[in-house]
Write a structure and sequence with these properties.
heterodimer; A: about 450 residues; Aspartate Aminotransferase, domain 1; Aspartate Aminotransferase, domain 2; 3 domains; seven-stranded mixed β-sheet; four-stranded antiparallel β-sheet; 13 helices; about 35% helix; about 15% strand; B: about 500 residues; alpha/beta; about 10% strand
């Protein structure tokens, strides 16, 4: 086996050196009653070429590009990935390194993380960002727990029902063993969150919305902050489409206290939903309540600038059960990918591309409206929008599938009385030709 | 080859200076080919518009040089030996990266209907089966995104189980050799960790567990082999005690690299365990992630696993969400699927024969180092160890040389240091886990370097105090970094 360098001769020399006769003696501490009775029932080892054949057979059972066009977003978005990014991230100095506890031999990772934190803070308009969480959903759950640490006397959080349904499920999982309460805020006719519903809630630590929300609708973030702050609660903004902030107002500039979400759009494949990237930032005042790792700038004994993991007294390996989170490994290499993407796009490029995404979705929206569709929500949207049809869209969806186009996500699985509502997504990767095919099929 | 001489493995390098990203570039450059739009510009309400992020504008060459320079300041498993105890820094096979990049996997949208994503569901299902086979347990979820996330999922499962039984449990037993993530994960679920000390042999006493295990205790979290590198040989008896009192046994799988093909976790009495695929199953650590933390459980607990659960009816793979007892969802989608592909590729490459052999050789390598360094460094427990061995700086302190000094000197000799100052119960711990992918020659070289450093500690302690010398920076001031945190740069 090519990963196991030991020859039989090596093994016998090593046993001689340690004064044991063989593997049975080596594992003598494992009682027979704790051992497998028989060899594991696994397939025989595969050579590289057998493995490639096997995996090719599995991957062939998928509806993916280039033969399929998937016009679904809902938390995972199809954007172009510059070829330079996979080339750079595959450098084993990044990929095969450990968490940078030994800072002197990990300055590459550490400077990379420091740059990621900086660019992320600028993207979200916040003062600080951490070195990542697992994904948008667990990030939201941790952000809500963070708000309850900051507002120690409070016991409730209010979250918009227009937050991604999966994210709300994860929040419920994290809150189930606690005594805290999660209250969902309804949605108005324009698709924005009904903030007035937060007004009557006592003991509120945070008001959380997603923007653009699950329906693609852009929330009024200044109103969210004002509502939260009136209640002496924190305003919390979550996102699934980081691209939006290339064009739209940044949550931090709307006075959001904590901002978190998924950065998958920045250079990462959809990969059946992971790994993505939990981006997470906040106001400076709350930095000691942050979950996750942070990289800070410092100096070495000669006064030379360098970077280290810092404020570790918040973390599990120091604080144990009193830590701000249990997170250890985060999304390491994905932070570097996101930073490489942000650097490759630049401020100018991201603005241009974010605008192009908006234009594509608006083109599809206008076409479907002209074809007889109705918008469920009247508010402004980004990249995604919800539509209803008089005709049977499920049948249209089947016909589109024959053309290898997957369009429209049915909302009936997520919301009551919504089986006639369909969520569409178009990014820069959707060609006009494909969008026209969808529009034509609806017209027909 | 010996430290103190001027040449050694990995000690000279090309150290380029490289500014921060925003100190490079010029407005108007772009490092990505943005396609021309083929649709007309649409109206947008000005009140929605932000000013756009303040990112530097760089060319592709700027970006490539920047990150290439940064990479030269790093040290990975491909660079050299990484004997980090309890972290299992084994070799990360190249083919796994290629398979994870196959378009059928990389471009798969997680919201595709089941019939359009049979491939990814099949891979998840097969991986669940493989992990059950290796662990001896009955059912699995691949949703957790890292080991600590798996622990947390396990604790949610404990909470869901006890709730279903109407039990009120507020405590959990935790050996003092536990990883920091264990108490933090338990605390997130409202369980107060109750510490159990290990005995003079570094092992848990069943009697101690019997004494502490009361009606308010939800169960126990055990890492086996423990973080002293020893197999908890009383585990079955301990599990029986916990079960008799209505508790559950959590097995922290961080050290599974010693156990594959040998230990059956169900027979040990473990009810729930997580895997660290970035340790045991060869996926890269990526400078801190992404990992994946699958969780395996006994049959009785299957109904509490996260939703959706991936099943197979003999023809089709399905995502089941009609699970009334499920603890709920823990990830946005299906976990770190891209990482799980790599882990499954590893399992298929190894098969039964080589997985077991990997564990055997990992244990052999650790014992070889233990015997060869005996007398040079203080051995925390003098017993046959599993995949890792714990020394300390006890012999070196009389020369005013600490574990940290030894670690920093190792860097200059071309090695990543072992895990240091952990486990907490060993003062000045040096925890060495060579893994099975290090050859005998590489072990011998490491051993010679460690011996030479022990000698240097006596003859030239300042050499150690002043290490490292051969990296981009020397020892960094972590205290100043924490006192006055500077977490972002530029304006």
């Amino acid at each position: 086996m090519r990963y196991l360098p030991h020859t039989e001769d090596d093994i016998s020399r090593m046993f001689q050196a340690i004064g044991l006769k063989g593997f049975d003696e080596l594992f003598a501490a494992v009682p027979a009653s704790c051992r497998h009775d028989a060899p594991l029932d696994l397939p025989a080892p595969k050579s590289e070429w057998e493995l490639i054949d096997y995996m090719n057979e599995i991957q062939a059972q998928m509806a993916v590009g280039p033969s399929y066009h998937v016009l679904i977003g809902a938390g995972r978005y199809h954007h172009h990935i510059p070829c330079s990014i996979p080339a750079l991230m595959s450098r084993s100095e990044f990929l095969t390194a450990y968490t940078p506890y030994q800072s002197e031999m990990a300055q590459g990772t550490l400077q990379g993380l420091f740059e990621y934190q900086t660019l992320t803070a600028r993207l979200l308009g916040v003062e600080v960002a951490n070195a990542s969480m697992y994904d948008g959903a667990s990030g939201l759950a941790e952000a809500l727990l963070m708000s309850l640490r900051i507002k120690k006397k409070e016991t409730k959080v209010a979250i918009s029902s227009a937050i991604h349904p999966h994210y709300r499920e994860v929040v419920r999982t994290y809150f189930a063993p606690t005594d805290f309460e999660v209250i969902e805020l309804p949605v108005l006719a324009d698709g924005r969150t009904d903030l007035s519903a937060a007004g009557d809630i006592e003991g509120l630590a945070a008001v959380a919305v997603q923007s653009p929300n699950f329906f693609g609708v852009v929330e009024d973030l200044s109103a969210v902050s004002a509502t939260a702050h009136d209640k002496k609660a924190l305003s919390l903004v979550v996102f699934t489409e980081a691209m939006a902030y290339g064009l739209l107002k940044r949550p931090g500039s709307c006075d959001a206290d904590i901002v978190c979400g998924d950065g998958q759009s920045f250079g990462m494949s959809r990969e059946f939903g992971g790994p993505g990237l939990g981006m997470f930032g906040c106001k400076q005042a709350y930095v000691r309540n942050l979950p996750g790792r942070l990289v800070g700038k410092t100096q070495d004994v000669d006064g030379k600038t360098g970077y280290v993991l810092t404020l570790a007294t918040r973390e599990q390996h120091i604080r144990r059960e009193k830590a701000t989170s249990n997170i250890c490994s985060n999304q390491g290499i994905m932070t570097l990918i996101a930073a490489m993407y942000m650097a490759s796009m630049g401020g100018t490029g991201l603005r241009t591309l974010a605008r192009q995404n908006y234009d594509k979705a608006e083109y599809l929206k206008a076409g479907l409206l002209a074809a007889g569709g109705r918008l469920t929500y009247s508010g402004p949207t980004y990249n995604e929008f919800v539509m209803e049809f008089d005709c049977d869209f499920a049948a249209i969806q089947k016909r589109l599938l024959e053309k290898k186009i997957v369009a429209g996500l049915n909302l009936g699985q997520f919301y009551e009385n919504s089986s006639n509502k369909w969520l569409f997504c178009a990014t820069e990767t959707a060609s006009r030709k494909v969008l026209d095919s969808v529009i034509e099929e609806v017209k027909a | 080859m010996i430290p103190g001489n001027q040449i050694g493995p990995g000690r000279s390098g090309l150290i380029m200076e490289e500014p921060l990203l925003w100190e490079r570039g010029a407005k108007g450059r772009c490092g990505m080919s943005i396609p021309e739009s083929d649709v007309p510009p649409a109206q947008i309400d000005d009140s929605l518009l932000g000013e756009g992020p303040n990112f530097p504008d760089l060319s592709e060459v700027d970006v490539v040089r920047h990150y290439t320079h940064l990479s030269l300041w790093n040290f990975g498993v491909d660079t050299g030996m990484y004997p980090l105890g309890s972290c299992t820094m084994k070799y990360n096979p190249k083919i796994n990266e290629q398979i994870a990049a196959m378009p059928g996997f990389a471009e798969a949208h997680p919201m595709l209907p089941d019939e359009l994503c049979q491939g990814t569901l099949r891979l998840i299902y097969e991986m669940q089966q493989a992990l059950c086979t290796i662990s001896g347990l009955d059912a699995a979820t691949l949703q957790p995104a890292a080991g600590a996330h798996g622990e947390l999922t396990g604790m949610f499962l404990f909470a869901a189980y006890h709730k279903s039984k109407g039990n009120k449990k507020s405590k959990i037993l935790m050996p003092d050799t536990a990883h920091g993530t264990n108490p933090a994960s338990a605390a997130l679920c409202g369980f107060k960790p109750v510490k159990i000390a290990v005995n003079e042999n570094g092992l848990l006493n069943a009697d101690e567990v019997r004494e502490l295990m009361d009606d308010e205790t939800a169960g126990i979290m055990i890492t086996n082999p423990n973080t002293l590198g020893l197999f908890e040989s009383n585990i079955r008896e301990i599990a029986d005690i916990v079960h008799e009192k209505g508790g559950l046994v959590y097995g922290d799988g961080a050290n599974m690299n010693a156990m594959m093909g040998i230990t059956d976790m169900k027979k040990c009495g473990v009810d729930v365990m997580h895997w660290n695929v970035h340790k045991t199953l060869s996926t890269p650590h990526g400078g801190g992630g992404p990992g994946a933390g699958p969780v395996c459980v006994v049959k009785e607990l299957e109904k509490f696993l996260p939703s959706p659960h991936i099943t197979f009816d003999g023809k089709m793979y399905h995502r089941r969400t009609d699970l009334p007892d499920s603890l709920g969802r823990v990830h946005s989608f299906h976990g770190n699927f891209g990482v799980l592909i790599k882990a499954y590729s590893y399992v298929l490459s190894m098969g039964e024969e080589y997985l077991r052999r990997a564990s055997e050789l990992a244990v052999l390598n650790a014992n070889y180092i233990k015997e060869k360094l005996r007398g040079y460094y203080y051995l925390a427990q003098d017993a046959v160890c599993m995949h890792e061995v714990v020394f300390s700086d006890k012999f070196q302190t009389e020369y005013k040389v600490s574990t940290l000094d030894i670690a920093k000197r190792l860097m200059d000799c071309g090695y990543h240091p072992p895990t240091i100052y952990f486990p907490l119960i060993v003062h000045g711990a040096i925890m060495i886990e060579p893994t099975e992918t290090e050859s005998l020659e590489d072990l011998d070289e490491f051993i010679e370097v460690m011996k030479a450093i022990a000698e240097e500690a006596k003859t030239d302690p300042d050499l150690l105090h002043n290490s490292p010398q051969r990296y981009k920076v020397r020892r960094l001031d972590e205290t100043a970094a924490a006192r006055n945190p500077r977490l972002t740069g530029g304006q």
